[in-house]
UniProtKB/TrEMBL annotation:
The lineage of its organism: Eukaryota, Fungi, Dikarya, Basidiomycota, Agaricomycotina. Its cofactor is Zn(2+). It comes from the Eukaryota. GO terms for cellular component: cytosol. Residues 62-424 form the Amidohydrolase-related domain. GO terms for biological process: guanine metabolic process. InterPro entries: Amidohydro-rel, Metal-dep_hydrolase_composite, Metal_Hydrolase, Metallo-dep_hydrolases. GO terms for molecular function: guanine deaminase activity; zinc ion binding. Keywords: Hydrolase, Metal-binding, Zinc. This is Metallo-dependent hydrolase.
Length: 446
């Protein structure tokens, strides 16, 4: 594949790069083999050695790396947009556990729900997603199969939980749960031998649903097979208080002594962690899935995003469906900025203007692309346009070149239009699925 046009990516959390009239080549393995200005001597020489003509992007379009969703409960897509009036622990009993149990009992329903979920993810430009599943192996294998057929990078977690407030939705014992986790990992590895496309993830739901024996065993399993780990950490006031009451310590310490805070770990939320606790995560190499929408519903505090970024913690964005009602990472980006600005406003009103707690739209775009790729440990260069990186890309269409009318919600009034930072910002604020013309993962169009 050869493409010529405008490319947009975030090299760093504060750096937006817009590259006009560049030439990009993708090999049969779906990796970028050439990326340079179309008028450069390197591009001229490259074109003399091949017979293919490049695809020219319309002037009103640009290519952008696909989004990464670091936290999504696949079975909860069944009731997306319901039950958000309840506190977290009540909501789990009333909605989450019931939905997960229902899909575990009905493979046909599970496949139908997961197939639609995959279609929606592609519509929203999500190329990589970290998924919580259910406790039943078969249902999670269905989830993996659906994501694989959709072509999405999917990291699938079979839930491990040997304690539950719902007696019908729990594994029999720590040993039973560990055996099930080993079996799931083994079957996933035997079916999906292409790394970074569909992989298993060790998934203790969170501390309240896991015994110390189970957590320690999962940490050992993850270490022995170099597996990713995901869970929830310091999410809500009632959850934090439950752990303190039952364990006599913070869930951060419970995870750490169980060897579950590693460079392969992504912990969702972390809203009740102070700055020193965030430093512990950084020391462990653990990443945070920031889910601003669900935090607004289920946490009494916002995540300390500015502080986390300033100290170099790995952070990406998550939709947290169904604790969050939107599958669109663009909404997560916007909500991350809004939440940070509210924190900054509170800071100012408390007469503390020395530090800035707000983030801007470029930083949010970085979190959705390159930051998410780093947090997930995706292959070299993911989230960027550079030689050797996989071609995980979405084509964004801003205006129709024949009519000069903006696509979707976008309106432009200048005769001479060019893709500038201001134009990209307008899309970031107002754009939607109507602006997404195509999506590729590993060079394959979805």
């Amino acid at each position: 594949m050869l493409v010529r046009g405008t490319f947009v990516h975030c090299l760093h959390s504060s750096t937006l790069e817009i590259l006009h009239d560049y030439l990009l080549a993708v090999d049969d393995l779906g990796c970028i083999t050439h990326f340079n200005a179309a008028a450069s001597s390197q591009s001229t020489q490259f074109l003399t050695n091949i017979d293919e003509l490049p695809k020219q992007l319309p002037e009103g379009s640009f290519l952008l790396p696909t989004f990464c969703d670091l936290h999504l409960h696949a079975p909860q897509f069944l009731y997306q947009g319901n039950g958000l009036h309840l506190p977290l622990m009540e909501w789990l009993d009333e909605y989450a556990f019931k939905a997960e149990e229902r899909l575990d009992a009905d493979p046909k329903l599970a496949r139908r729900v997961y197939t639609r979920l995959a279609e929606r993810l592609v519509e929203n430009g999500t190329g990589a997603v970290l998924l919580f599943g259910t406790i039943k192996e078969e249902t999670n294998l269905i989830l993996a199969d659906v994501m694989h057929k959709a072509g999405i990078r999917a990291f699938v977690g079979k839930l491990s939980m040997d304690q539950s407030s719902r007696p019908s939705y729990v594994e029999e014992s720590a040993d039973n749960s560990l055996d099930a986790a080993r079996s799931f990992v083994g079957k996933m590895k035997s079916v999906y031998d292409i790394p970074h496309l569909v992989e298993p993830v060790i998934t203790p739901r969170f501390v309240p649903t896991c015994s110390d024996t189970l957590l320690k065993g999962l940490g050992d399993l993850a270490a022995s097979q170099d597996l990713r780990i995901q869970s929830h950490l310091a999410e809500s006031h009632d959850q934090v208080e439950a752990v303190r009451s039952e364990r006599g310590e913070e869930d951060l310490l419970v995870f750490r002594r169980s060897n579950l805070l590693t460079p392969r770990t992504i912990q969702a939320h972390c809203t009740f962690l102070d700055v020193p606790s965030l430093s512990q995560l950084r020391e462990c190499g653990t990443a945070v899935a920031h889910c601003p929408l669900s935090n607004a519903y289920f946490s009494a505090k916002p995540f300390c995003l500015r502080e986390a970024l300033d100290q170099g913690l790995k952070v990406g964005l998550g939709t947290d469906v169904a604790g969050g009602y939107s599958l669109d990472i663009m909404n997560a980006m916007r909500q991350a900025v809004v939440t940070s600005r509210m924190r900054q406003g509170s800071n100012i009103m408390n007469c503390n203007s020395e530090s800035t707690l707000a983030i801007n739209w470029i930083e949010a775009l970085f979190l959705a692309t390159r930051g998410g790729a780093i947090s997930l440990g995706l292959p070299f260069g993911c989230g960027l346009f550079q030689v050797g990186a996989p071609f995980d890309v979405q084509q964004i269409s801003l205006w129709d070149t024949s009519t000069r009318i903006g696509v979707g919600a976008l309106d432009f009034f200048d005769d001479a239009m060019k893709i500038t930072p201001e134009v990209v910002e307008k899309w970031w604020c107002l754009g939607d699925n109507r602006n997404r013309a195509s999506t590729w993962v590993q060079g394959i169009k979805l």
